[in-house]
Task: inverse folding
């Protein structure tokens, strides 16, 4: 089990096969998926198949967020477009799936841990992410953490047959270390 980053409450680690049952349940929960590109008919098989594809791809990290007190997963992170030449990556998905941890600051704590890991240990120059138009909570959090808006990618993602715009944001290494 690869430990990525941790604080006193949460551990970010490589996903394990046992995590996919949780991911499959959360990735059809409207409380999790409202602003994520998971189709409502997503199955356990879809989650496992996707994860198997990630395992051999050096440009992707499939991570679990674990509650250190219980040892149970509470969410998931998917990082894509890891480019070691350009020192950049994209935080493609990050969600808190466990209902008991939602709305209590877990996402903010985990995001801070993840950003620090990306800049300090992975030595990234640029970390990007996006959010659905209308997801004001995500926008406010990302701005508070230091991400800067870069524009809108029109019809950039598809969910249940419908296209959605994504608001693009990024943080540079100098911006992270200036905070």
Result:
């Amino acid at each position: 089990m690869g430990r990525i980053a941790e604080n006193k409450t949460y551990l970010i680690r490589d996903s394990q096969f046992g995590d996919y049952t949780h991911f499959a349940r959360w990735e059809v929960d409207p409380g999790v998926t409202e602003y994520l590109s998971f189709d409502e008919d997503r199955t356990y098989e879809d989650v496992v198949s996707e994860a198997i594809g990630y395992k051999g791809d050096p440009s992707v990290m499939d991570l679990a967020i674990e509650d250190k007190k219980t040892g149970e997963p509470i969410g998931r992170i998917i990082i894509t477009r890891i480019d070691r030449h350009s020192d950049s990556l994209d935080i493609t998905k990050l969600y808190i799936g466990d209902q008991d941890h939602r709305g209590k600051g877990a996402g903010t704590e985990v995001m801070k841990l993840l950003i620090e890991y990306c800049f300090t240990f992975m030595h990234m120059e640029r970390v990007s992410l996006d959010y659905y138009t209308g997801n004001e909570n995500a926008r406010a959090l990302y701005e508070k953490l230091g991400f800067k808006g870069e524009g809108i990618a029109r019809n950039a993602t598809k969910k249940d047959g419908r296209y959605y715009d994504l608001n693009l944001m990024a943080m540079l290494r100098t911006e992270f270390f200036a905070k």
About this structure: The beta strands are 3-6, 10-14, 61-67, 73-83, 88-96, 126-132, 148-159, 162-172. The chain has one domain: 3-129. The chain has a mean pLDDT of 95.
